[in-house]
Amino acid sequence: MNLEKTTIFLQKWRVRLGHVFGLLIIIFARPEFKWLILGAAVALAGEAIRVVSAGSIMKDRKLSISGPYARTRNPLYFGSFLMYLGLCLAANNIWVTAAYFPFFFTVYYATIYREEKFLAEKFGAEYEAFKAAVPRFLPRLMPAKGAEAGGGFSFSLAMKNKEYEALVAVIVTLGALWAMGLTGWTFKF
């Protein structure tokens, strides 16, 4: 499989691969109370970033440069990073957490690469200026010059962009981890 086909596969299957990784988090979890609290806080912060980002983007119609997009070109993916990192922390398994980093950056680098290519073709000079002003992944503290810090958030747009899928996934996974932590039940190997 060549590099282009690999990046297409990873972009197309990123959500399903994330679900598989979520199952592995649960299977190898050894949750403890302090890690559940920390992990839940990080995961929910990541999902909050995703909700705001999904409610601020007009996919494929308009280049999003305001709200969270004034701080990072990929706030949805930054939110996903925090969401899954929080789930790994809540699982309290160093091996799952260590496996998460190469998994995430392989899948999402491919996705970001493909999306940047698409956006450059669709929005041309406007995207190139945005790309020069706003970091790819890690958010800036202040919005980029020329970008609006606010922006039009719409909860209905977030739901139209199917953010409820990630919201349900994080709640179900956290619920399973909390149930495991409170009962002491884990998968035995």
Shape label: globular
- Kindly state the number of beta strands: 0
CATH architecture: Up-down Bundle
CATH class: Mainly Alpha
The CATH topology corresponds to: Four Helix Bundle (Hemerythrin (Met), subunit A)
Average of the residue pLDDT scores: 94
Salient structural properties:
69% helix, 0% strand, globular, Four Helix Bundle (Hemerythrin (Met), subunit A)
Describe this structure in words.
- This protein is mostly helical and 189 residues long.
- The protein has a single domain (16-183), classed as Four Helix Bundle (Hemerythrin (Met), subunit A).
- 69% of the residues lie in helices and 0% in strands.
- The chain contains 6 helices and no strands.
- Helix 1 (3-27) packs across helix 4 and helix 3 packs antiparallel against helix 4 (94-133).
- The longest helix is centred in the middle third of the chain and has 40 residues, at 94-133.
- The radius of gyration is 17 Å and the shape is globular.
Short précis:
The protein is mainly α.
List the helices and strands and how they pair.
Elements: H1 3-27, H2 33-54, H3 75-91, H4 94-133, H5 155-160, H6 163-183
Helix pairs in contact: 1-4, 1-6, 2-3, 2-6, 3-4, 3-6
